[in-house]
Design goal:
The chain is an all-alpha fold and 497 residues long. The protein is 76% helix and 3% strand. It contains 16 helices and six strands. The structure holds glutamine. The site of glutamine has 7 residues, from helix 15. It comes from Rufibacter radiotolerans.
Amino acid sequence: MDLTEPQIPEAPTSTGHPRQLYMLFFTEMWERFSFYGMKALLLAYMITQLKFDEPKGYAILGSYAALVYTMPMFGGIMSDRFLGGRKAVMYGGILMTIGHLVLAVPQDWSFFYGMAFIICGNGFFKPNISSLVGTLYADNDPRKDSAFSIFYMGINIGAALGGLLCGYVGQQINWHYGFGLAGLFMILGLVVFAVGKKSLGQNGLPPNPDDLKAPVFAGVSKEVVIYVATLAIIPVIVALFHRYEIMDFIMFGLGAISILYILFIAFKMEAEARYKLFAALVLIVFSTLFWAFYEQNAGSLNLFAMRNVDMHVAGVQLPALSVNNFLPPAWVVILSFFFAWLWPALNRKGMEPNTPTKFGLSFILVGMGFYVFYLGCQTSEGSGLIPLLTFIAGYFFIICGEMCISPIGLSMITKLSPPRIVAMMMGIWFFASAVGEFLASKIGSLMSVPENVVNNPVLSLPYYADILNQIGLWSLGIGVVLILLGSVIRKWMGEVR
Ligand code: GLN
């Protein structure tokens, strides 16, 4: 039996998708609840509780976000080569649970250690849960895009609830309770997967189980070595948080290595597979820029929401962190229905945009979203507060952009990568968002507001307005370039749309 060949489940549910998709959906939903619940609190916690100055807060946020999405590359390789997706998801989930619970401990030491556990755990969890979805369908199965859209909805239901509840509990009641709440929901995700994973059949089993169990030294198996070696990385990550300036070199170095590595693999392949990898590479590189703009959400826009958005609704002051972290995933959930209808409808008319065009559109839409924020700033100079409706409208465009890149990218990776390296490629896809989020924190840092004006919206507003405008313009320009490059990329993709 070839364990690297995916086993396509039969007997779909009434939605036309196998029931295993829903098991993965709920696992990921609760995991993202905890992930985004925690992330909602991160920057504001550092600035208001740990009293980091703003540039340092952005730098630590950027380092966390960069590492949390760098580790999937390693988690992907470990899974392709040794563990298989199922063991990787279980191990990653356990580490993430520990990380969230450590963050709930109200001690200074817990902060960096909690993040380090989450970083390692996410490395094993995130790429593998996504590539397990891919194993349920053949590459040319037209249900694959829609499966990823459904899965993406699970991600965002979790993210919306997590942002809302943890954001509220953390900001209004106690920051550590907020982190702890995230941990409880991670446990729930783990339980769903532990119970449901058998239904995956041979999908996600280790590619070579005997090799994995075989002792490598002193009777200890390869599997245990992988687990222990991962734990050994945790203090290294903590040290990196203390010396976050080094992150610039690490991200630049790893970025260059991963591009070279994909090229190296591509050149060893037959022409068709090689060009598919080229196409994937170009789209991955562009996605980095997308995340650099988009991820202002977890950084500068959290503080912008606290300072410069009018959160009063019917005489009630809404908690800014909850609102800012609930809005994007909530828009994703709502818009998923629209896009689930739109793509097939356009397809029937032969008018569905191809993948590079969708990527280009995503930049144009994000650009429009940031431009709406900017216009909000321009018209609110008197009070310094932009209306909540403008904030909601800006996110509408940004999330339309996300719908054109993020789920499409996941699906694109599983289609363009040879099965043997699909989890690693998924890891590289997430690594692109690591570089993107790292850049996002640098952009965010340009919007640092001096201590003496943080409580004065009229004076803090100009620190945001100009950069928001520039993000909008850059994003529009990049979108146009990408659309122009579309025909070359499409040729490389072969018959895959
Ligand atoms: N919001 C999505 C998720 O959590 C995408 C994240 C990413 O690719 N950086 O899965």
